[in-house]
Amino acid sequence: MAVFTPVTATDLAAFLTRYDIGTATSFKGIAEGVQNSNFLLETTSGRFILTLYEERVDIGALPWFLALTTHLADKHLPVPRPIVDRAGIALQTLNGRPACLIEFVPGVSVTEPTVAQSHAIGVALGRLHAAVRDFTAERANNLGQPYWPEMAARCAGRSGEIDASLPDLIDAALAATADWPGDLPRATIHTDLFPDNVLMLEGEVTGLIDFYFACTDLRAFDYATTHAAWCFSGDGGVYHADRAAALAAGYAESHGLTAPETAALPRLGQGAALRFTLTRAYDWLNTPPDALVTRKDPMAFARRLAWYAGATPQMVLGGAGAPDAPLQQ
Amino acid sequence: MAVFTPVTATDLAAFLTRYDIGTATSFKGIAEGVQNSNFLLETTSGRFILTLYEERVDIGALPWFLALTTHLADKHLPVPRPIVDRAGIALQTLNGRPACLIEFVPGVSVTEPTVAQSHAIGVALGRLHAAVRDFTAERANNLGQPYWPEMAARCAGRSGEIDASLPDLIDAALAATADWPGDLPRATIHTDLFPDNVLMLEGEVTGLIDFYFACTDLRAFDYATTHAAWCFSGDGGVYHADRAAALAAGYAESHGLTAPETAALPRLGQGAALRFTLTRAYDWLNTPPDALVTRKDPMAFARRLAWYAGATPQMVLGGAGAPDAPLQQ
Known about the structure:
2 copies of one chain form a homodimer. By secondary structure, chain A is an alpha+beta fold. The first copy, chain A, has 10 helices and 10 strands. Chain A has 2 domains: 9-105, Phosphorylase Kinase, domain 1; 109-328, Aminoglycoside phosphotransferase (APH), C-terminal lobe (Aminoglycoside 3'-phosphotransferase, Chain: A, domain 2), CATH 3.90.1200. Helix content of chain A is 38%, strand content 16%. In chain A, a hairpin with a 2-residue loop joins strand 2 (36-43) and strand 3.
């Protein structure tokens, strides 16, 4: 939540001469994302986001990320389009950082999703999966299932400092996800479609943002990640089956799950919850408590982990068997 | 440069019901100021800044600050106006913090001021001093001259850790400013009119912002602070007499200095440079080097301190005797 690389008015004016978008009338650093420096830019011709990519992003994959979001914008998905300069180039360098000017889209990030919003994101996820069918370039998922034992090891036996139950939860999840449904259909997936990466306006999805964890992996793993992100209370303690049912219905409208994908949902959910438990635990153990970055609680995902370990496919879909599922009533 | 207090879409929607400004269409935390949480808000009726006041601001003085900026906006100064709710109230509470919705003004912060911009800010400072003649409410300057010995003591003898020359520079400046021209005219002053607190567009000042250090003190101390902020290179190593001459000419157009004020300029400049040397030194010594906040170099103002110690009033005005003053050529 910070600007890491400053950009002065002079830097900006020189940068904008590469483009046909006029001159700056307003320019403010925005506190969005913990990975990049982002600025909201208004020029005499419109509004844009200027992103300078910092070290946490996979810099080598930037051409792939920008090709993906350009592809999605071309397919009329609500994905902010990278802006090209007069030479047709989107990826630039500014103040020693890779940089890109990106279309501004309106909308407000969701915080506590409603059932209607969960339906809308299900539809949007399905449209995303439909739109990448002809996006054939691949990027490996360097936070995927093969890496989880190594990611757990990087916490160096210290996860018990976060919560006494965490080491056992992680060990059990590593053992369970070692049996991984690796033969399910693969696709380009977002893998980080949390509510704060979605902009909405009057119930419509106006922006799907932050594709910097996108990769090629099991398509239904994207569904599981979105489910984990949207269908629980923030602390992971309450499962909202009504949101899960709405997510499933929305996704079925625009894409749909295959029978093997549906059968694998609890295992995929365990994987999604484990991935976020591990990255949050690492950040928690390696961020000073007094740093200005808000540390995200790893236990919020450890609780989801425990839920998925006892879930059936129907429960993940918000149907029979879920604690407050409509079908139970 | 961060958002300290999060505001969710739900928090925001409830907050906006107090106002007649429509509903949110975009809402982004902005990385402006190290003291408050600021958000850029767009609604169906316009654009606004939402500020949540954090602990570093003098919370008790918020009604005074907002009365001052409302007064200045009423006088057609380019000062963003606090927005009142349907009951006529500007100062609200949101998520446990004092909060205010403020008019959005266009413009881009200055970084390396030009001569023309220095002239423009001189004019704006004079207009500010003219506009507060009938603003009679007072606020003590708790970072003013009587407090400097105490502020130096708070660095607890550690200023030598920053630079070996710093303890002697501070001691000399404390001794010099003990002889303080306290009988000069008093007024409501900004005291922090640095380039990053000024928005400009095509040479015009479109915004004077961040009045949260404003107070009642020597009027010419505001001139001296503005001089210290605008007329040196960022590191304080180079004095730009051409900018100083433009600042003086601009201020003379809209307000002007009295003869005793002019005579006191070198001493006032020492005071201004000392005040920023001391606050920066304290922050430097008390901010972890790996914190996400950029620490501002105290030596940039210690160098200005040394310059003012050897300056004449004419040099401060950009005239004869200044290293690269036009009059020398």
